[in-house]
Automatic annotation (TrEMBL):
Pfam families: VWA, vWF_A, YfbK_C. Keywords: Signal. SMART domains: VWA. It comes from Natronosporangium hydrolyticum. Gene3D superfamilies: von Willebrand factor, type A domain. This is von Willebrand factor type A domain-containing protein. Residues 153-329 form the VWFA domain.
Length: 497
C-alpha cells in the first residue's frame, strides 16, 4: 500500500458498452479523459490518502467465503463531493465504494434488538453477461427514540491550530451548535482544544447549564501549531475521569489530521487511542482539505471503536451533528463482523465491491478479540457482491449464499450472531424491476467504481450514470441526498468531458 499526496487526475474513464436502465449495447460512446487537477486550489502540501487496491474476483472452488469487519464510515463520499463542488475530479485513492453506499438511506426494517439482516439482488447491469447477478447484503441496527436512549457524556476534542481558521472552524462551530440543540437535559458535554498544546476549555458540564457550553463553542479561536497527541491525551483523560456507568461515553474529535508537534507518527497515535478507548467510543470528524490527512483520521476511528465522517459544508455539519451523530449515540453492537458463504453449485465467482481495508481472515470471524465495527442505534451497513451463476439460471429455491453476522453485546460483552440465506428467487429478473433503494445502491456504487478505476468503471460511463440517477430522483421523490447525488454525477460527467 502506498500513500499519495495531492490531487491527481482520475484514471481514464472508460466508455460504456452497456446502458444501465436497459442493459443494451451502445456504439456511440468513446473513452474520455479526466481534466487535469488545479494545483493552485491547494495552499498546503495537499491531502493524504491511502491506496488500498481493488478486490479481485474469487473462484468459489478456491475460496467460497468472504469475511470483513463492518464499517459505517461515510467520509469518502463527502470528500468527493467537496472535490466536485470545487470543479475537480477526486483523487481515486480517496474513493471507497462502501462509504459512498453507506452515506444513503436504505429503509431496511429495523429489528427489536441486535442486528437485522436484509438480503436481495437483481441482474448486474454493467457486465452484460446473462450469468451476472448483484447481491445486496444489508445490516440494520434498532432505532432508539431520543426519549428512550441512555444519557451521554460527550468529550469534544477540537483542533484550533492555525490550519483550522476560516471555513473549517465555521463548520465546526455550526455543527456543535446543532449538536447542542439535539441533546437532552440528562446529557453532559466537555470541550478540549489543542493547538501547540492542549487545554480543557470546558469541564464536563450538564446540558441543564447550556450557557457556558454555548459560550465555549463561540469562543473557539484558531492559533498555533498542531499537537494532536496532547489533545487526545487530555481528552481521553477527562473522559475517563467522568465515565458514566449508567449511560454512554463518547469522544468526538474534530481535526484536519495534520500533526506537527508532539507525537506525529500516525501509527503511534492510533495505538495510544486503542489503549485509551476502553468502553468509550470515538467519532472522528474530518475537516479541511489543504492539510487534510485522511489516513490518520480513519485509523483513529478504527482504533477508537467508532466511525469517521467528513465535513465539506456548513450544511453537512448541521446534518451530521443534528441527525446522524445524535441518532446513533447509543452503541447497539460492538466489533461486528460479516461472513458470506457462497454455494459453489450456484455461484462460481464473486467480487465484493469495496471494504478493501476491512478484510479479515475467515477464522477471525469467530475470534471475539479481533477488532470489528461498532454499530450505533439506527445505523445501517450495506455490502454489494457481483456474482456469476450458471448459464440458463437457477431454480428459484436454489441457495446462493448464507450470510452470518457476529457482534458483541455492548452491555454484557457476550457474543451474538444472526444468519440469513438468499436464494435465486430473492433476486428480481432485471435492474428495472429492482426496488428503488437497491437501484440507488447500484448506481452509487457504480459512481464510486468509475471514479476509482475499478472494474465497473470499464463498462459504464459517467454520462449514462447521470441519466439513470435523474430517473432515480423521480422514483425517490423528496430525498435530498438522491437529488444531490444526481447533480454530482452530472458534474463529474461534465468535468470528464
Amino acid at each position: 500500500m502506498t500513500q499519495r499526496k495531492g490531487v491527481r487526475a482520475a484514471a481514464a474513464l472508460a466508455a460504456a458498452a452497456l446502458a444501465v436502465s436497459g442493459c443494451g449495447a451502445t456504439d456511440d460512446e468513446s473513452a474520455v479523459g479526466a481534466p487535469a487537477p488545479h494545483p493552485e486550489a491547494f495552499d498546503g502540501a495537499g491531502p493524504v490518502f491511502e491506496h488500498y487496491g481493488v478486490n479481485p474476483e474469487v473462484d468459489t472452488v478456491d475460496d467460497n467465503q468472504s469475511t470483513f469487519a463492518v464499517d459505517v464510515d461515510t467520509g469518502s463520499y463527502t470528500v468527493t463531493r467537496g472535490y466536485l463542488d470545487s470543479g475537480l475530479l477526486p483523487d481515486p485513492d480517496s474513493v471507497r465504494t462502501e462509504e459512498f453506499v453507506n452515506y444513503f438511506d436504505q429503509e431496511y426494517a429495523a429489528p427489536e434488538s441486535g442486528l437485522g439482516i436484509h438480503l436481495d439482488g437483481t441482474t448486474a447491469p454493467f457486465r452484460g453477461g446473462s450469468d451476472q447477478r448483484l447481491i445486496r447484503v444489508g445490516l440494520q441496527a434498532p432505532v432508539v427514540d431520543d426519549e428512550d436512549r441512555r444519557p451521554v457524556n460527550l468529550t469534544v476534542i477540537v483542533d484550533v491550530s492555525g490550519s483550522m481558521q476560516g471555513h473549517n472552524l465555521e463548520m465546526v462551530q455550526a455543527g456543535l451548535s446543532r449538536l447542542l440543540d439535539n441533546l437532552g437535559p440528562d446529557d453532559a458535554v466537555a470541550i478540549v482544544t489543542f493547538s501547540s498544546d492542549a487545554d480543557l476549555l470546558l469541564e464536563m458540564t450538564p446540558m441543564t447549564q447550556q450557557t457556558p457550553i454555548r459560550d465555549a463553542v463561540a469562543a473557539l479561536t484558531p492559533q498555533g501549531m498542531t499537537n494532536l497527541e496532547a489533545g487526545l491525551r487530555l481528552g481521553y483523560e477527562h473522559a475517563e475521569a467522568n465515565l458514566r456507568s449508567d449511560g454512554t461515553n463518547r469522544v468526538v474529535l474534530l481535526s484536519d489530521g495534520e500533526a506537527n508537534e508532539g507525537q506525529t507518527d500516525p501509527q503511534q497515535l492510533a495505538e495510544q487511542i486503542a489503549q485509551a478507548a476502553g468502553d468509550t467510543t470515538l467519532v472522528v470528524i474530518g475537516v479541511g482539505r489543504q492539510t487534510y490527512n485522511e489516513v490518520v483520521l480513519e485509523q483513529f476511528a478504527n482504533q477508537g471503536n467508532g466511525f469517521y465522517a467528513y465535513l465539506d459544508t456548513v450544511r453537512e455539519a448541521e446534518r451530521l451533528f443534528g441527525h446522524d451523530l445524535t441518532g446513533t449515540l447509543q452503541v447497539m453492537a460492538r466489533d461486528a463482523r460479516v461472513q458470506v458463504s457462497f454455494d459453489p453449485a450456484a455461484v462460481s465467482r464473486f467480487r465484493l465491491l469495496g471494504f478493501e481495508n476491512r478484510q479479515l481472515d475467515h477464522d477471525q470471524f469467530d475470534d471475539d478479540t479481533v477488532d470489528g465495527g461498532e454499530v450505533g442505534a439506527g445505523h445501517n451497513v450495506t455490502a454489494l457482491y457481483e456474482v456469476t451463476v450458471p448459464e440458463g439460471g437457477l431454480a428459484s429455491d436454489a441457495e446462493l449464499a448464507t450470510v452470518a453476522v457476529r457482534w458483541l453485546d455492548p452491555d454484557s460483552g457476550e457474543p451474538a450472531e444472526a444468519t440469513a440465506t438468499i436464494t435465486a428467487g430473492d433476486l428480481t429478473d432485471s435492474y428495472a424491476e429492482a426496488p428503488p433503494r437497491l437501484r440507488q445502491s447500484i448506481l452509487v456504487a457504480a459512481f464510486a467504481e468509475v471514479l476509482r478505476g475499478a472494474p465497473w468503471g470499464e463498462a459504464v460511463s459517467l454520462a449514462q450514470l447521470a441519466d439513470n440517477a435523474a430517473v432515480l430522483t423521480r422514483d425517490l421523490p423528496g430525498d435530498d441526498k438522491v437529488e444531490e447525488f444526481a447533480e454530482l454525477v452530472q458534474t463529474a460527467a461534465d468535468l470528464a468531458g
